[in-house]
Amino acid sequence: MGIASFFLPVLLFITCLSSAQGRPNIIYIMADDLGYADLGGYGRKDYQTPNLDKLAAQGIKFTHAYAGAPVCTPTRTAFMTGRYPARTPVGLLEPIDWIAKDSLAGLSPDYPTIATLIKNSGYKTYLIGKWHLGFSPAMSPLKNGFDEFFGFNGGAVDHITHTDPSGNIDLYENDKPVIKEGYLTDLLAERTIKILGQPHTKPFFISLMFSAPHWPWQGPGDKAYPLNDSNWRKGGSREIYASMVKSMDDAIGRIMKTLDEKKLSGNTVIIFTSDNGGERFSDMGMYQKSKMQLWEGGIRVPAFIRWPGKIRANTITNQPAITMDWTATILALAKAKPHPGFPLDGIDLMPVCTGKKNMVERTFYWRIFQRRKQKAIRDGDWKYLKDEKGEYLFHISADPGEMNNLKEEQKDIFIRLKQKYSDWEKTVLEPVPLGK
Question: In this predicted model, what pLDDT tens digit does every residue of 200-246 receive, in sequence order?
């Protein structure tokens, strides 16, 4: 064997190892039903979120970030696929429910996911927390690119007993249901911390999907809901809601502390956001309406990114962003190539975050059909909205509270946006009526 033949495999190994080490670890954190102004740094006054506010201050904070949908299953579809929810069958369910017809629905492995793509690029992949993209083992996180799963399949879970509304255990260790004691938010944080403490021969991608502050409204130390009472939307209070958010904030504080202790902070990108606007006890700030609606309060969400040494601290951007952008950004960070047959609808935001590129004008589309009938497009500073009561045109930068309908004064823009939306809708799947 010649010298070149001997050293070539060694050089290739070193090159691959160096490449893997040169890419950052990535933690994507998604809160559940967190309103735009539910964090102290975004305006909440009646409780404090010091850890999340500190995390935001250590990086770049978005003021024009949007969810891909005003409800969880479509938004999670958008993140996992990097595409508008209506391009994937499961994204038409608003959301997957605890009913027979939805029992076999879910995210099919036929659709490439962020986990599949990033895993192929050499990452170890973890999903911790809420899935809500299928109950069937054939539609599980393990079938969609995640190496490990610790969490629950449904849209919500009792935070104390980890059961669904019928009393069935919905806490899984990979593909097996498990019984564990503890407040759910704490369990998710503990599992994340355990992963961070392990040896890492590959860069890791952790998708940490909290259930907080989604109903049932239970804080640490509260009682479980009675098994014969599945009306989880009742009860609660602003105080209980505050305890849920603060518990999540504390959990993230412990995770950040572990990153520092393990000397992982410098090479770990943290992205935080919410799956949609808030609900009953949420604060949407100046924005109208809430979850399940396409007014700003239902889709405008907090979002920020920290990457020490790469993203300047205490930065605020008005760059419009949407769920699919986080997918594209993460894949770019991981040097993972999108599937050519499933082009992404998002863009890599890192050049804007690092100051290498100016803000990019965007066009976003939304549709909600099953429980409400609403359509919306944001094109630059203009937003066309159609809800059950009528049609609207707002200059969203000058009028973020959507108070001044300009459809008569700006007829040309109104017609243009309405047509642009109609053209887009022809490129996605037909909506599915509720119950079909």
Answer: 999 999 999 999 999 999 999 999 988 777 689 888 999 999 999 99
Structural element, H or E, at residue 272? strand 268-274
Residue appearing with tokens 């911790």: 128
pTM of the full structure:
0.94
Distances (CA, A) of 222 to 188, 226, 235, 243, 251: 18, 12, 12, 10, 17
* Cis amide leading into 302 (omega within 30): no
Q: Cα dist. 125→148, 172, 207, 305 in Å?
A: 7, 16, 8, 19
b/e per residue 58-72 (b: at least 16 CB within 10 A): bbbbbbbbbbbbbbb
Q: Are residues 371 and 338 in the same domain?
A: no
Instruction: State which residues form the domain around 178.
Output: 21-360
Contact status, residue 414 vs residue 324, Cβ threshold 8 Å: no
Cα distance between residue 275 and residue 409, in whole Å = 34
Domain boundary among 333, 360, 387: 360
Average pLDDT, the chain: 94
Same domain, 257 and 396: no
C-alpha 90/C-alpha 67 separation (Å) is 17
